[in-house]
Amino acid sequence: MNTLGWPNLRSLNQEGIVFAIAVVLFVAAAIGLPGFIDPNNLVAIVRSVSVLGILALGMAVVIIGRGIDLSAVAIMAMSVAWYLQLLNTGTSDGLAFAYVLAGVLAIGLLNGFLVAYADVPAIFVTLATGSFVFGYVRSQLITQDAVPVPQGHWVELLGGLRFLDIPIEVFVFAGLAFLFFLFLRYTKWGRYIYFAGDNPTAARNIGIPVRPMLVLRYVLSAFVALIAGLLTAASLHSINTRVVNSTLLYDIVLVAVIGGIGLSGGRGGVRNVLVGAALIGILLNAMTIIDIPLLYQNLIKAAILLGAIIVDGIINPRDEQTAQQGDI
Amino acid sequence: MKLIRTLMAAATALAVTAFVAPTFAADDPGPAAYAQALKGKRVMLVPLAMGFDLAQGWAHYLKKEVEAWGGTFETRDPNWVVDAGAQAITDAISSDTRPDVLIIHAPDLNSYSKLMKKAQAAGTYVLLVDNPANFPADAFVGSDWDRLGQLEAEAAIKGCGENSSKKIGLVQGDQANSSSLYQYAGIMKVLDKHPDFKVVAKPDSNWDATTSRNVTTTMLQQNPDICSIIDFWDGDATGASAAIRDAKLDGKVFLVTTGGGEKAADCDKLQDGTYGAVVMTDLARQSGDMNAIIKFLLQSGQPAGTSHTYIYTLEKATTKADLKPDSCWDLKALQAEAAAK
C-alpha cells in the first residue's frame, strides 16, 4: 500500500490479477448481457463449475505439496462407472460401494506410495495409474462407455436435491472448500503441506513425516474425485467414461494454476481455487449467452490464461530459489 | 391299348422329369460361386469407439452374417482417439492378414482420407459408415444427415405447435464432424421455410453431456419460453434433458434428438417423456445394407476404389405416440445372446 491507499502494483499477484479480470468480466456481463445478473443464472454459474471446482480442490492440495495428480479424472469417471455397473448387474448397494471405496483407496495409496517411497515423479506415476484405471475398468469391469444410474437409486435422488432452489453440488462444493480451508489453515498436517511443498528436504530434516503425508494427499485427491464423479452421475443420471478423453483434466489444472497456485509448490490455498473457478464460470457463461462457437471459446479461454501468466511473470519475476528447484 | 400306352409313356416322361428336377436344382451355380467368392474373406470394422451402442450393434449384426458365410470379422477400438484409429487402419493395411473389406466410421471429413486411399490401392474395399468423409469410398452406408436434420426440425415444429413461442434452441455437436455440420444445414433448411420459427441459441456440446447440461441451462435461463430443443446426439442429450428437468420445464420443452435406436438410450426415454421425438436409425437394417454391399463387392470382381455407391438408411422421427415394441433394438439382449454362446 502506498500513502494514497491504492493497492501497490508490486503486491498484485496472479490471484489478484485473475480476480480483477473476473470482476471486470462480471460487471461487463451484468451491464451488457440481459439475464446475466439474474439470481438463477448466478446459481447456474456456480453450479457449472462445482464439479470442476471440487476436483480442483483435490488437485490444489496435491500441487501445494509439489505434486500433481493426472489420474483424477480417470478415478472420477471409472470408480462411479464401476459402481453403477455393479448395481446394474445386481450387486447389493453396500457391497458395491465397499468395493468402489476399496478400489479408490487402493489407487490413491498406489499413487502416493510410488511418488513418496519409490521416488518416481508424480507426473509419470499419475499419468500411468490414470491410464491403467481407465483401461482396466473399461475393458474388464464395464461393457459400455455410458453407464446409467438404476431407477430410483439414491444417486438419482441426490441429483434432484435442492435447498432454497440451489442444486446440491453447490453446497457440496462450498462445504468441501470450507473443510479444505480449515485443513490447510488450521491443522498441523495442513500447515506441514506448505513446508513440504516449499522445501521437502528441509521439511524432512526438521522431523515432518513428509512421505506419509504425500501418500495422504493422493488418497485425499482420489476420494475427492469419487465425490465429483457421484455428483456428475447424480445430475446426468448416468456417467460417460468418455470424459476421460476430454479436456477436463487440463481444466482442473487450469483452475488451480490460473487462481495462482504455483506449480513449484508451497503456495496458494482454497481462495485461489475459488478465484480460478469464478473466472472460468463467468467466462463460459457469458460466452454461451453471447452464443460464441466452441472453437472461439477455447481460443478466448487460452488467451486469458496466457495473458494472466505473462502478467504474473512480469510483476512477479521468478526468484533464485524457484529457478534452482524448478517446477514439477 | 393305344391310349394306355400313350398314358404310360406320359407317366414315364412325367416320372423322369420329376426325377430330373432335383438334380437340376443341385446344379444351381449360385451357392458355389457365393461360397468361393466369400469364403475366408476378412472384414474389419474401425468405429470411433467400440464402447457405444451404434458400434456394438453394427459389430453384432455384421459378425453374425460374416461368420455365417465363412469369413472372419474383426473390430478395432480407437476409443474416440483419432490417432489410434489411424494407427489401427495403418496396421491393418500393412499386416499379413490385410482385410478384404474395411468399414470405417470417420471422425471428421478429412482425417483418414489418405489411409483409405492406401487401403484401396492395396486392394481393400473401403466402406464408410454413418459419418461421411471427403473421400470416394466404395460405398457409404449411413444417414443422410441433412435429411435427418430436416426430420428433427419438422418434429420440433410439430412438438411446439402453432400457439407456442416458436423459439427453438439447438445444442450442436462441434464444428468439425460432418454429422453435426450437415445436421445443422438440414435443420436450417426447414426453418427457412417456417420464418415464424426462430433459433434463439445454438451452442456446441462437444458431444459431452455435462457441457450440454450447462449450455442448455444457460439457454433456458435466457429464454424460459423456448418450446423445443434439438440436441444433435442422444449420447449427450441426457445433459440437455437434465437441464430441462432442473429448470422444472419437463413437458414444456419438447426435446428432439437422434440416435441409433437402442432401447435404453432412445425408446425408454421416449416412453418416460424425457425425449419428445428421436430420429432413429434402423440399425439392423443399416447393418443389413452393409452386409449386402460387402457381399456384392466381394463377388463383383471389380477392383477396390472403382465403385461409389451411397446407401442412405431410411430415417424416421419417432414419438411416444408411434412407439412400437419393435421400434428399438436392445443392446442388453444382444450382449446376453453373445455371452450365451
UniProtKB/TrEMBL annotation, chain A:
It is found in: Cell membrane. InterPro entries: ABC_transp_permease. It comes from the Bacteria. GO terms for molecular function: transmembrane transporter activity. GO terms for cellular component: plasma membrane. Its main location: membrane. Keywords: Cell inner membrane, Cell membrane, Membrane, Transmembrane, Transmembrane helix, Transport. Signal peptide: none annotated. PANTHER family: ABC TRANSPORTER PERMEASE PROTEIN YPHD-RELATED, ABC TRANSPORTER PERMEASE PROTEIN YPHD-RELATED-RELATED. This is Monosaccharide ABC transporter membrane protein, CUT2 family. It comes from Mesorhizobium qingshengii. The lineage of its organism: Bacteria, Pseudomonadati, Pseudomonadota, Alphaproteobacteria, Hyphomicrobiales.
TrEMBL record, chain B:
One of its GO terms (molecular function) is carbohydrate binding. Keywords: Signal. Residues 1-25 form the signal peptide. It comes from Mesorhizobium qingshengii. GO terms for cellular component: cell envelope. This is Monosaccharide ABC transporter substrate-binding protein, CUT2 family. InterPro entries: Peripla_BP_I, SBP_2_dom. It comes from the Bacteria. Belongs to the bacterial solute-binding protein 2 family. Residues 57-299 form the Periplasmic binding protein domain.
